[in-house]
Structures are given as C-alpha cells and as structure tokens.
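User: Sequence in, structure out. Go.
Assistant: Echoing your sequence, followed by the structure tokens.
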Amino acid sequence: MSSNGRGEGSNSRGADIDAQMDRIRRLLAKAESTTYPEEAEALLGKVAELASKFSLTDAEIWAGTSSSGRDSPIHRSISIPGPYAARKASLVGAVAESQGCKAVKLY
C-alpha cells in the first residue's frame, strides 16, 4: 500500500500521486497568498483540475499537514425560520453533506 493509503499496485503510481498532492498544496498556498484575484482564480482552477484528474479529496490533500489550519472543524450557527422549518433544516443537512460537511440540528 502506498503512503497515501490508496493501495495502488505500483509504487511509481503512489509516488506520482504524492507528488501531485505536494504540487496542489503549493498551488493552494500561492493562491492564498496572492493579492491578484485573477491569479488566485487561475491557480484554484488548476488545483481543481489536478484534484479531479487524480481523484483526490480535500482530506487526502491536507493529510499530515498540521500547519494547514484545517485541523479543527469550522462552526457556523444558522437560524431557520418557519414556515416549513423542518423541511428547510433537512435541505440544509443535505447540502452540507453533499459538500463534505455535517449539519447538527439543535433545538
């Protein structure tokens, strides 16, 4: 099994994915540090392209990087007014799940 936990049969394939994850991390860091919105957008587009090409998830990209600032969950509270609050809350939960997040219903 390769170091990224994907279990490829070839060590070169695992090394290629590891190299691409490093490349993606560098592109993300550059996108976050630039003051030019157009450059950031282009860099993020390349990140999305590479992540899709190699079927990489956000968790895989940031695994083992303690300085990424992505180690702790982000908390957002929203109030869902009536009418149909239960159905709206269900929709919020579905959208959150589709984005790799979790919605917690508090009464």
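User: And one key feature?
Assistant: Residues 11-33 form the longest helix (23 residues).
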